[in-house]
Structure formats: C-alpha cells, structure tokens
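Dig into this one:

. . .
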Amino acid sequence: MKAIQTVTSQAIPLMNDNIDTDQLVPKTYLKRIEKTGFGEFLFDDWRYLRDRTPNPDFILNDNTYQDAKILVTGDNFGSGSSREHAAWALLDYGFQVIIAGSFSDIFYMNATKNGLLPIVLDETSRQELVKDPIAVVTVDLIKQEVQCGAQRFSFDIDATWKHKLLNGLDEIAITLQYEEKIHAYEKKM
C-alpha cells in the first residue's frame, strides 16, 4: 500500500448524495480477483454512453480534471454492497482522497485498508473546495487539514488509521513487522 502524507491536486466535484458501490463499479466487472484494472470501470454507467464512447456530460470525461487525485462528493458515499472493488476502482483510476459528507462504514473501512483516504467535511466546506474548477487543493494527513487558497478545513481521523496511511501499512505489512518472531515461533513448533 502506498503511503499518504500530502496530496495536492485539483478536486473533481461530483456532489451527488447516496453514490453506492453499484454506481462506483457495476457488478458486471467483479469477476477479476486482482486489485488492478478496475479504474476503467469506475462510474461506468455514468462515464460511458451505450456504445462505450465517453459521455461528454460526465465530469470525469472533462479534460479540466484529467489528473485530479481528489474527489469531492455528497453524503452517504459508498453505500450499498460491501464490495472492496469500489475502493480498488477509485485507486486504480488515480484517486487518493475522497471528501464526502459521510461514508458507509464498510466502504470507509475498505478505503482505509487499501490506502484511499476518506475525509468527512460539511457541505459548506466541500462547496468551497470545488467552486473554482482550476483551484489546487492540498490534503495534509499529518496536520489533518484540507487547504484551498487561504481557506483551511480540519478533519478527524482515527489515530490507528492515520498511522497506517502515513506509513503505507496494510494488514500484510503489519504482520510482516513480526516476521522474525513468527519464524522463531515456527522453529519451536
């Protein structure tokens, strides 16, 4: 998992509430078992027309935001089924931070376990972040702060998740920190 300390980017505004995991990555594409390759299916039903050409009216297809790493969205992001593929698709597309009014609990856990930083901010703060489409937003996990121009917005995160994200530690990396002890134990058995 890639460590996150600061992320500086434009922010894509997708201010819909109740974006569920079916909208993030439709079940049609859940046959893969690896974590990569899901980015092309992110928001598939919204991003593409029936003939699979890009929908010119969908914000991810706007050239203004092609390299954005921050998604700013509405309330109840990631609701629905508990598919980890949703976090994989967001990461594979290039997002590192999702700023929403709230997250479903399961999505929040899947995001943090895969190195995607979910941030909860109120609606007024989120609207400020995206009112200028070319504004640069900086997310500082160490300071727990989102900055856009002169404005700064603080956010909360559990200390354990903050430590894991800052150090790029997923469950496997944490286990491997005890590799010597594991080998010593196995030798005794």
About this structure: The radius of gyration is 18 Å. The CA atoms of residues 45 and 119 lie 25 Å apart. The chain has eight helices and eight strands. The longest strand covers residues 6-9.
